[in-house]
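User: Fold this one for me? It's CobW.
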Amino acid sequence: MKTLAKLPVTIVTGFLGSGKTTLLRHMLDNAQGRRIAVIVNEFGELGIDGEILKQCSIGCTEEEANGRVYELANGCLCCTVQEEFFPVMRELVARRGDLDHILIETSGLALPKPLVQAFQWPEIRSACTVDAVITVVDSPAVAAGTFAAFPDQVDAQRKLDPNLDHESPLHELFADQLASADLVILNKSDLISPEDLARVRLEVAEELPPAVKIIEASSGRLPLDVLIGLGAGSEEHIDGRHSHHDHHHDGEDDHDHDHDAFDSISIDLPQADEALLLDALTQLVVQHGILRVKGFAAIPNKPMRLLIQGVGTRFDKHFDRAWGPDEARITRLVLIGQDLDAAGLEAQLRAALSV
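Assistant: Here's what I get for CobW.
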């Protein structure tokens, strides 16, 4: 009986807005026939990131693609490994003969070390290995000293997590994401000066073991051979990587994250004018402290669906695909934040759009 090789897993981590999903899309678009499963870990019951990733061409039918994107609803993988991550991995292990690689995108606050340690569990360790932990760095944000593109939004998330109560929390979170890295990508390198980029490289290097490589990228566009096949076996040496968060996982009683204060609401609307919709969403973000907006919109007289992603008041949008002949042309949005009034937000959107 043929023994199956261990299935390689790449873990992608980084702050909100650093470009993790863009990197994954690039990897999937350039999969070159590799059969890849994706685990998307993000706040929100409706996995818009999963919807985005399903648009990528990975050499399989739409039905197969839908079966290969696994979305974990909670925002912190280190909290959900026992409840959600393990069953998902067990299913993938059972199918590993049909897969070549697994990609895991963590949420902006997920600490990679506990996730990598989960690969030490016998049932996973015998079938999988962590090929690499890739930390995506927002170079302009680090150059500005904020570490995240939208520090207020990231800090709002952090304050809801009692296990991240440090004097300089964002810097320590940033350092912890780097502490587990096998490869660091200085993303958005084209948006800062060569001098600032050199300073960012030096600052990042101070947090890394000497063997960890640092590479630069624009929108995560790197050759796939640079990103996978690293063979790091991260689970073998992760216990020796120090992080500020270590002491919080010494005992079961300390592992008591509470993400219930995050609200994730889904709103369905009819077709909407693009400019009006984006203006209305910007107003909602400003007035209600919304952390993230994801979704798609039906624009009148447009044959294609408009994909929308917002972090803070910055919105990225593009037409991703044509509407299906039998598909309802609706606008579906997910708003993520704290203490959100679903009915009030929907009413405000409808009033702004006059629908």
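One thing worth pointing out: The chain has two domains: 7-246, 262-353.
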